[in-house]
Give the backbone structure.
Amino acid sequence: MCGIVGYISKNANPESLHLGIEALKRLEYRGYDSAGFAFWDERKREIVSQKAVGKITSLEQKIDPRNSFFANPLILHTRWATHGGVTEKNAHPHCDCKRNIWVVHNGIIENFKILKARLEKEGHKFTSETDTEVIAHLIEKFFDGDLEEAVRKSLGYLEGTYGLAIICRDDPRKIVAARLSSPLLIGLGKDQYLVASDPSAVIAHTRKVVYLEDGEIASISPEKFVIYKEKKPEDIEWSQEQYEKAGYAHFMLKEIMEQPETLEDAMRGRLIIEEGTARLGGLQSVEKKLRQVDKIYLVACGTARHAALVGEYMIEECAGIVTKTDAASEFRYRKPILDRNSVVLAISQSGETADTLAALREAKARGILTLGITNVVGSSQARETDAGVYTRAGPEIAVASTKAFTSQLAVLALFALFLGRQRQLPLTTGESIAKELQRIPALARRILENSAHIRELAKKYQGFENFLYLGRKYNYPIAREGAHKIKETAYVHAEGCRGGEPKHCELALISENFPSICLAPNDSVYDKMISNIEEIKARKGPVIAIATEGNQDIKNLADDVIYVPETIEILAPILNIIPLQLFAYHVAVLRGCEIDFPRNLAKSVTVE
């Protein structure tokens, strides 16, 4: 959600602006509706700015190719609208009355209306509807030749969240950056520094980065950077190649097809089959505490919350621990019953989801043990939890999460196995689960080899505007996630429901124009699901069944069948979601949707 890039170099050159724009393009996957830049032109001795609604290509079209700019320093931004409509005036960067201070901002300033009213009384003139513009005017208020000092004084007045990069005409040889609950890092290149909200923006230039912590301010000049706390540079663990499509039409398809490998990576070195357990190095420091836990809260948003719902079943079945899944956006606003034997486990692909971080901080404030499952090393969640586990899925660029979701499920299975073996789970049962987990990547590969059949089904069903997804027990969250995928990629209405619930409501919607996708693997609730499919067929509703290989009887009931390999019930969700991901992808392609960057959505939701 929104993207920040900053650039400053010892040697300004006419390619600096192009370099900055290319870095900004690497943040397109986060979702945005407008873009802009501002820079100090060392030759012309002025700040140049440009903005555009739409894609970054629209911004590039506004740059006169006859002009040669020596942009140093340079700040750029992609905006995802929160305060104010999608207009050029509301696009970033924003400036003060004198066009001296220029600001790009990720996050939300919650008290901006109060600040704006005060500043207007002092004579400041605003030109946008955004919360961000108050930051520029606040800095103007305190500016007396030293940009860093003016920023420091201004931040004390701000309530909310921010990742900031700021330049100034009257103090031009620096970028000042600041962070509070919105990710920001400094890339350390040769004779140059980059500021970014995401490692993908800097990976083409350096793998050495410093992550800013909450409350820190950095002053970056061509020669050095200074932070109000010395920090050791870290290596970005992902390679530049992982940010490329590798010949696929879309990142989403590439990431779906990568799942056999990412599942292997999630489990590599963690399964101990002969002991029927898992070794999770990130939890070693809290292993003794986890033996005392009798209540687990899983907090997450969106797709990660669906993984948490599966994890709830896994943990209760393997470990016998009371487990509850909560929407992170609601966790702070209720009164969860937490005590010293409780643990809060946060799940987030990016580790920067604002609501999930807020839930995490609420738990920490109450003295509760906090754990995390995330994909991004160095993320806010990874740094703030007491302990945690990385999913190792590599960069996920498409807004619609696929490989990160199955990796989260794999890690949750490992976690449940680990907790279970700490408690009453027998060795033979643990060994059986561990052996089957080892098979999962190969079984996922078999599903992907059958993707042509799923593409043909997408052609058949692409014209429908409504879908009902049904599942029971472990597959209820998968029904929800399947509906989630087709909504966010193909822009069609879909609902994910428990198999037994439609007779209380959703059957009223069923007709020949309202297909259902029913998850009916060979498991403990198979007969119940068959009854639910019968109820739909009695109302003339078309049915696509997700069934276990070898089940020929279901062909007599369902209109179409997608087969998945057989596995044990606890692990079936990892396999059953893959055909639903492919179905959503192919329907979206056939409907002409923008696959990797769905309208109105963002990859990393860094605002509440």
Summary: The mean pLDDT is 92. The two ends are 11 Å apart (CA to CA). Residues 471 and 499 are 5 Å apart (CA to CA). The longest strand covers residues 71-79.
